[in-house]
């Protein structure tokens, strides 16, 4: 009975919900770009600048979030992050100037979403699951796409029928309602409940972190920068971020509007991607448990590159061409996460996988922030997104080659309680 109803599954469900709400909040700026342009006269480049700061901080907070969770626990860290998000998003309804958007959407919301990013899912999967870890991580990662599936069509309708401020209030309420659920149900480790991890037979004592979270995170970065495999993983994930959150997640809806497709229809395309990615990323987790992660990544990046090269021409086929793109691209949206986490664990040790993935994910968000800003700038200067889409396609082709060079050479790392991490 205990095995069937292991508390790990409760942790996975709550984590899925938290990541889903975080994804819905991160996807919201894509709906707001055009309404903000119309109401305040702000350019796409100005709005994209705030979105870029949001995405950048979302990534850079990740490794520090892992260290904070190690130091203060999952329950407190996640609950506080949700409350911070609720406050920051709600206040955006009263913004009037670009600097206010930069402060609220850029800094405050970016920091809050960074605390409940994919590194949170990697931490839960690593602590609570001995078996099926890749499959669970794939499902948790797919919650980002599911967040779009659940939120975007609803939020797009709200923006059209009730104004963009109602969008801010809706997502703020979702974060506020989830905070007490996280405080009630989240637990730090299986051993806190006298349980082994799912699939394990031994209750393993927790490794308590006594190091300052900042020192822990920066020490991990120091080790990573001396590893070739780290740079290959970070470089490929930079491209992943640029070609997903930064470009498509932020700019597909404005691109559709440029071609005469209304917001609700464009949001439906992203929702279709969400459905497809829920399938694709969960399947990627299953495949990661069974096949070479480097070959999987090469396949994912190659297919994504082809779909992005097709995107500018899909508008010529009206909504049907975009639907084909949405299905093809959606299956590959964030399928890269499970094999990337697996490779991080193989290189730096399973106990450090979430922390090192945090820094790799930071590169992902640097790429996303760069693409979010540059694509907006290109649209402002040229009037369309053609150059942005094609450039991202070729970048993905390059990433497909990069990941095949990863050698998976283990890098010894010290325990969590040591004051610094040292390279081998």
Helix content: over 70%
CATH architectural category: Up-down Bundle
How large is the share of residues in beta strands? under 5%
For the record, what CATH class applies? Mainly Alpha
User: Using DSSP, what is the number of strands?
Assistant: 0
The Cα radius of gyration reads 20 Å
Give the overall pLDDT as a whole number.
81
Low-confidence stretches: 414-424
Which geometry do the CA atoms define? globular
Largest sheet: none
Structural class: mainly alpha
Q: What's the tally of helices? A: 15
Textual characterization of the structure:
With about 425 residues, the protein is mostly helical. Helices cover about 75% and strands about 0% of the residues. The chain is built from 15 helices and no strands. It is globular, with a radius of gyration of 20 Å. The protein starts with 6 loop residues before the first helix and ends in a 22-residue tail after the last helix. Residues about 415-424 have low confidence and may be disordered.
């Amino acid at each position: 009975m205990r095995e069937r109803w292991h508390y790990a599954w409760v942790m996975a469900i709550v984590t899925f919900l938290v990541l889903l709400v975080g994804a819905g909040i991160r996807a919201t700026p894509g709906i707001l770009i055009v309404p903000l342009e119309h109401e305040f006269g702000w350019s796409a480049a100005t709005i994209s600048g705030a979105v870029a700061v949001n995405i950048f901080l979302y990534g850079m907070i990740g490794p520090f979030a892992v260290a904070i969770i190690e130091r203060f626990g999952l329950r407190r860290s996640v609950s506080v992050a949700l409350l911070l998000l609720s406050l920051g998003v709600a206040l955006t309804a009263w913004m009037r100037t670009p600097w206010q958007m930069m402060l609220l959407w850029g800094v405050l919301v970016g920091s809050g979403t960074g605390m409940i990013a994919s590194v949170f899912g990697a931490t839960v999967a690593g602590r609570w699951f001995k078996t099926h870890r890749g499959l669970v991580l794939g499902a948790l990662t797919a919650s980002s796409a599911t967040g779009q599936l659940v939120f975007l069509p609803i939020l797009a309708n709200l923006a059209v029928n009730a104004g963009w401020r109602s969008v801010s209030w809706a997502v703020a309420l979702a974060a506020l309602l989830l905070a007490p659920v996280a405080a009630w149900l989240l637990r730090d480790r299986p051993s806190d409940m006298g349980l082994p991890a799912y699939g394990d037979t031994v209750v393993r004592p927790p490794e308590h972190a006594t190091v300052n979270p900042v020192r822990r995170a920066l020490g991990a970065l120091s080790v990573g920068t001396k590893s070739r495999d780290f740079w290959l993983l970070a470089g490929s994930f930079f491209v992943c971020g640029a070609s997903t959150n930064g470009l498509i997640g932020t700019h597909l809806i404005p691109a559709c509007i440029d071609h005469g497709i209304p917001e609700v229809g464009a949001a439906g395309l992203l929702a279709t991607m969400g459905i497809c990615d829920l399938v694709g990323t969960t399947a990627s987790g299953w495949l990661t448990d069974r096949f070479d992660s480097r070959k999987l990544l090469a396949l994912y990046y190659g297919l994504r590159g082809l779909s992005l090269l097709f995107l500018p021409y899909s508008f010529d086929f009206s909504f049907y061409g975009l639907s084909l793109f949405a299905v093809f691209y959606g299956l590959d949206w964030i399928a890269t996460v499970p094999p990337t986490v697996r490779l991080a664990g193989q290189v730096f040790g399973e106990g450090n996988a979430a922390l090192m993935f945090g820094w790799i994910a930071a590169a992902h968000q640097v790429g996303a922030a760069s693409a979010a800003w540059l694509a907006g700038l290109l649209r402002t200067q040229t009037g369309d997104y053609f150059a942005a889409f094609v450039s991202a396609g070729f970048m993905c082709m390059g990433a497909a080659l990069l990941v095949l060079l990863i050698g998976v050479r283990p890098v010894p790392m010290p325990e969590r309680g040591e004051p610094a991490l040292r390279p081998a």
